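This part of the workshop introduces the protein records we will be handling. Each record describes a single protein and holds just a pair of labelled lines. Instead of coordinates, the fold is spelled out as a row of discrete tokens. To make this concrete, we reproduce a full record directly below:
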Amino acid sequence: MAQHEMHKQELKAYRDYLENQINKRDIQVMYKTTATKNLLEQLNGDVVLVAIGASPIRLHFPGEQLEYVDYFENVYPKLDSLKDNVCIVGGGQVGIELAVELLERGKLVTVIEMTDQIASQGHILYRAGLRRLLKRFEKQLTILINSQCLGFSESGVKIINKNGESIIKCDNAIIAVGMKPNREEAFKLYGIADETMMFGDCEKLGQVVGATNDAYFIAANI
């Protein structure tokens, strides 16, 4: 999603760099192709490296089919088309980074987070930088920690916290409860080649630098 985020232009540049390096070398990239067992058997490789990433977590809420409700991966390409008052369910890194993108566009944003801390999985320096960034948007941003989403209705987002149940009115509601490793799908690709290894987010959620480091050393030791 780097191509959609204002604060990830360096990541986009790195992706573009990798694409350029691929184009300079004799590397076949099969776009829009699912790596099935049958396909890998046909390719008949000696080693299979599995880096199929992570998928959005889908928690199903009552009323999620309403027109104003959507999942974060669907809204990134159309952030500018969202209305002025947006509610985000999920205050992890995914939800908070989405909130920043919307705040930069002048939206009013409410973040609903079940735990007592936003971006709790982020590095301490990441969270420190995030706090400084969010202070710029104090008048636009509301963060409700220790608050659980119960579902959606025509009136808004229904939540519960220590103050009881309430309705958060908004124009758009976005479900952004994080990502999960595609480990199960990765394990299905084992046993085809003499050697198989997984790395990156399909093994464990992490950062680009960690996945790149793992990829380098795995490839160097083949």
Observations:
- The radius of gyration is 20 Å.
- The mean pLDDT is 93.
